[in-house]
Design brief:
The complex is a heterodimer of chains A (306) and B (299).
Chain A lengths: L1 H13 L1 H23 L6 E2 L5 H4 L1 E2 L3 H6 L3 H20 L2 H12 L3 H12 L6 H12 L4 H8 L11 H29 L3 H9 L4 H12 L1 H13 L6 H7 L5 H4 L2 H9 L6 H30 L6
Antiparallel strand pairs in A: 1-2
Chain B lengths: L1 H13 L4 H28 L3 H6 L12 H9 L2 H31 L6 H13 L4 H10 L6 H8 L3 H12 L3 H9 L4 H12 L1 H17 L2 H6 L8 H19 L9 H37 L1
Classes of the chains: A mainly alpha (306), B mainly alpha (299).
Chain lengths: 306, 299
């Protein structure tokens, strides 16, 4: 026993510089992540600013019961899931398609220029991107100006309930499609060239080769990214929706994050309830991510962190 | 291999374009135009005057080239102080965040020492679960960081993702190098500074860029944490201009004598916010791409 403790201390002493290097970052994670995590007790309390987080009275699960009878919260939960699942359908395949197209493109230099254009919007904030795109689509914007000039009538694209969600998918792709395609392009470039030669011998054209060689060749990447995306179902693009939302389309676009924001900065904020909604979201998110990681691990042999 | 590639290129040049290739080229050109054109349109509008735009909104160049929007912006908005604040936050933030991530990543790449697994998982857990908006905000308030530029630096903070990638980078250093250094009497710190950091400099450059972009683009939390106009970041200043401009346009539409071109001012603000990224991006693109590839290998 004594020998074991002595060995432990010796190991710790031996790694003293390693702990020194860790200390700075660990302090950061404790102060800015773990202390706020302990703040989730607010979800079980009636927050009183004077008494602080720890002094406020307990309310048990009242806030959580309230989530399911508050129409705004229920709608936000429904929208979060709906928007994300449709994102998987309309948003997820686009970078794959783009990667296939880029792979078929001839001319190295022009390809590089195109890729610079495709990936550039990824590096802009949603404030910038939404301002540019909303200006483009607004009543006084370019699209409507063209419609008028060819004899049509102005149309308010941004406040149409039916158009808003498709607009979310389109603008998200506009910003991220090029960047997301890089992973697929890399996966394509690692496919064994002899497979293509064999396919050519068998008489397959470029299209058939893309369908029967390229796509199966990047299947593992596609599945991994798909599972990851399903794992992120609770994070449905807060900033994008936050900037593009307007009162006319609130009913189809209010997600949990925007809902939490709006009730927190309400005329009568209820910090306890806001925290409870946030915790509800975080817990589902945690379960989904751990599940996604487990599936990927089973499938690939290694997960996201190990 | 290289001669093979050269031959391939030669053959490619000689070959005629097939219908499929033309379709591919056209679709890609379409996509490129769809992405490029709204930017271009924003540039045009930012140099346009109100009168010219009302007369002829469908224009591929500013019909009355003017700098009025930019002048108005610099005189009225917080863009210039926003630049100052954002540069401060981006610079200090990137230096601090990268130093801390690199130190942690290196420490986590070391072989077994007591508590390693527990500490690593504790850090990774923050990627999966967080206290949420209110507890986080209250913590900044308790620390007296509200309305301080340091709050944004600390909020963006250390990225767990960077730690994962840098850690796997450090793990690839040949063990012989370290052993040789150890025989020469080097401790972990000396190995870190003299061997690991120079070896991983390309990876470090890439992730320094990513971190800088993250700081430059942070908006939501800088809006929550900073209240006074003089400390506003560039993104907050832009957002303020956009919402003010929209409000002003609602109030004064049709009012005589109102000659501020709100749309033009908005686009000028957008241009100024993205100018640095726009200037540097084409030259730095390959580093960014390298970064995402390193990440995907890990995944």
């Amino acid at each position: 026993m004594q020998i074991r403790t002595r060995r432990l201390f010796r190991d710790i002493w031996k790694a003293r510089y390693v702990y020194m290097l860790l200390s700075f970052g660990l302090a950061y994670f404790i102060v800015f992540h773990y202390v706020p995590m302990s703040g989730i007790v607010l979800a079980f309390k009636k927050y009183n600013a004077r008494l602080g987080i720890w002094g406020s009275d307990w309310t048990g699960l009242d806030h959580f019961r309230r989530i399911f009878i508050t129409p705004g919260a229920v709608a936000a939960i429904k929208n979060t899931f709906e928007i994300n699942l449709t994102r998987l359908l309309f948003q997820f395949p686009m970078p794959i398609l783009l990667a296939l197209l880029i792979n078929e493109m001839r001319g190295t230099r022009i390809k590089r220029i195109y890729q610079t254009i495709f990936t550039f919007p990824h590096f802009l904030s949603w404030v910038v991107v939404s301002t540019i795109l909303m200006n483009f689509l607004a009543n006084s914007g370019m699209v409507n100006a063209v419609i008028v000039s060819i004899g049509g009538k102005k149309y308010n694209f941004l406040s149409d309930e039916r158009l808003f969600r498709p607009l979310l998918y389109i603008t998200q792709n506009w910003k991220e499609m090029g960047w997301s395609s890089i992973i697929y392009i890399a996966a394509i470039s690692s496919i064994d060239l002899s497979l293509y030669e064999a396919a050519t011998v068998d008489g397959a054209g470029r299209f058939k080769q893309a369908l029967y060689v390229t796509l199966p060749g990047i299947k593992a990447t596609i599945i991994t990214l798909f599972i990851l995306q399903v794992g992120r179902v609770m994070n449905s693009g807060f900033e994008q929706i936050f900037y593009m939302q307007n009162p006319a389309v609130k009913s189809v676009s209010d997600i949990l994050d925007t809902y939490i924001y709006s009730i927190t900065f309400d005329a009568v904020p209820n910090y306890g309830f806001s925290t409870a909604v946030g915790l509800f979201k975080s817990v589902i998110n945690l379960v989904m991510l751990i599940g996604a990681n487990a599936i990927i691990k089973k499938f690939n042999g290694s997960g996201m962190f190990n | 291999m290289s001669t093979f590639r050269k031959n391939l290129k030669y053959v490619e040049k000689r070959r005629k374009w097939t219908t499929g290739q033309i379709v591919v080229a056209l679709s890609l050109t379409m996509i490129a135009l769809i992405i490029f054109f709204p930017f271009y349109n924003a540039v045009v509008i930012s140099f346009e005057t109100n009168r010219a735009y009302t007369l002829n909104p469908v224009s591929l160049y500013p019909t009355e080239l003017s700098l009025a929007n930019y002048e108005y912006l610099i005189e009225n908005g917080n863009i210039l102080s926003g630049y100052k604040n954002t540069i401060f936050i981006t610079f200090i933030g990137t230096v601090l965040s990268m130093s801390a991530s690199v130190m942690m990543a290196y420490a986590f790449s070391r072989k077994n020492y007591p508590g390693k697994k527990f500490l690593f998982l504790s850090v990774m857990f923050t990627m999966l679960f967080s206290g949420g908006m209110i507890p986080t905000y209250l913590q900044f308030k308790n620390l007296g960081l509200i309305d301080s530029r340091w709050s944004v630096i600390l909020y963006v903070g250390i990225s767990t993702y960077n730690i994962i990638i840098l850690k796997s980078g450090f793990e690839q250093t040949p063990i012989e190098l370290e052993e040789a250094a150890k025989i020469d009497g080097a401790n972990d710190l000396i190995i870190f500074v003299r061997i690991e950091l120079p070896l991983q400099s390309a990876l470090l450059a890439t992730f320094t860029l990513f971190t800088a972009v993250a700081y430059w683009n942070e908006w939501f939390w800088s809006m929550l944490l900073i209240n006074s106009a003089s400390k506003m970041t560039l993104q907050t200043a832009l957002r303020a201009i956009v919402s003010e401009a929209s409000a002003a346009a609602d109030v004064s539409s049709g009012e005589a004598g109102f000659d501020v071109f709100t749309q033009g001012v908005k686009m000028a603000a957008v241009m100024m916010t993205m100018l640095p990224i726009m200037c540097f991006y084409p030259f730095l693109q390959k580093y960014f791409v390298k970064g995402v590839l390193v990440g995907s290998v890990k995944m």
